[in-house]
Write a structure and sequence with these properties.
The protein has a six-stranded mixed sheet, with helices on both faces. It has helices at 99-112, 131-135, 140-154, 169-188, 231-240, 263-272, 326-333, 370-375, 397-407, and strands at 6-11, 14-19, 40-45, 51-57, 64-68, 79-81, 83-90, 116-119, 126-130, 160-166, 200-204, 216-218, 246-250, 254-256, 261-262, 298-303, 308-313, 342-345, 365-367, 426-428, 445-448, 459-464, 472-477. Helix 1 (99-112) crosses helix 3. It is built from nine helices and 23 strands. The longest helix is centred in the middle third of the chain and has 20 residues, at 169-188. Strand 22 and strand 23 (472-477) form a beta hairpin. It is of the alpha+beta class.
Length: 485
Amino acid sequence: MINNDNFSIINNGEKMAENIEIPVSVGPMNEGERVRGPDMQVELAGPKSYGFELVKVVDKASDEISIVGKDLDGMEEGSRTPFAVIVNVGGESLEEDLEGVLERRIHEIFNYIEGVMHLNQRDSVWIRISKDTYSKGLRLKHIGKVIQDIYKAEFPFIKHVDVKLITEPDIVKEELEKARKIYTDRDEKTKNLHEEDVDTFYGCIMCQSFAPTHVCVITPDKPALCGGINYFDARAAAKIDPEGPIFEVPKGECLDEKLGIYEGVNNIVQEKSGGAIKEFALHSVMDIPSTSCGCFEAITFYIPEVDGFGIVDRSYKGETPIGVPFSALAGQCSGGKQVEGFCGMSIAYMKSPKFFQADGGWNRVVWLPKELKEKVNDAIPEELKDKIATEEDISNITELQEFLKNKNHPVVENWGSMEEEVGMDEEEVEGEESYDEENEISVSTMSLHSGFGGLPSNVKIILKNATIKAEKIIIMKETEKPKKK
């Protein structure tokens, strides 16, 4: 796969020609390899640093590989370094619409390299190099050469590829702002197209090396969970590489418009997940939500004490109101799992008119990190902007309840009538404590839906007079759901 012909390297301004051999194996057999902390030589970008990856279509490229800053052997073992990958591609048939598609392939290419782990995309990229691979001689120039050769091998219409790898912190930061502007411009293109306007969606299984049962379904109203591929990107990818990881999904009959359940989507999801997932709703957190991979930009999570949703993105380092950080929540729903009450998503989806519409959309959002709230401020309805809490307003559930009551958030209206009469057999758990009116909160009943948090699909939990510690638990066996039409 790798061509070892002479090529030009510019290392901190010094140009040289080398006949290079890649010192480790490169290919799909290395996908899915994890590099844990104790085995890590260096970490590039990641949640505790910063960086990005970007592909641009240019008129001229000269097949140069540039390294700006320290190479791997100039970094301290176990250190974290800002990192950027900028790839310029040239060819007669190349168009700007292909940039996002080609850019997402960087994830796959890095994971082809033995001892290299690549997660996420765009400006949340996270890369680790193992000690073993480093000791075999892998350096940034080799990574640049792998990127260059694989692009040319997989896409014959690409004639020239320039690769710039940046580890100089100030330059990474400067280029990062330019890249974010390009990401925003790409995402704006899909604003006037919606699911009802098209007959075909697109699927992506690029993350199945890490999440074997995950199938990402991309529509005009829902970008890929990673945030790196919108509808037009996916359409271009399926066209130029029909046998690749991004493919057409005939949407078929709409079985439930509000939930976003489509016959064609269910067929593809079942096929591509190997039968592990039977169906899912595109626009719900609580009712058969989409599977989540691990590259998602943010997580929406249900907070039963307030009957609302919190949203946390991977750049937020603190704890959520339920006392756990992003990483713990990610472990709850990643890996291709379908967990009601938790759902990975892209930040761009928060600006969609169908943003979790089946669950109430923005009217059910009660908490966001301040930085994320500012990032999506234009998507939040004006009447809700001061009613959604951030980490500066509250630090726990009790404070969140008080905040929402004082702000008269829409979820408060539901607190007195959250118990559903569903006509099922019920069994009270022995040892129920007596009710103490002095500790009364306004949330009298909370229902954790079947499947919530990994519960069996036929079990439903209702919390009576709940605080952080429930005073009464009812476990109910739920009858089979009628088929949605």
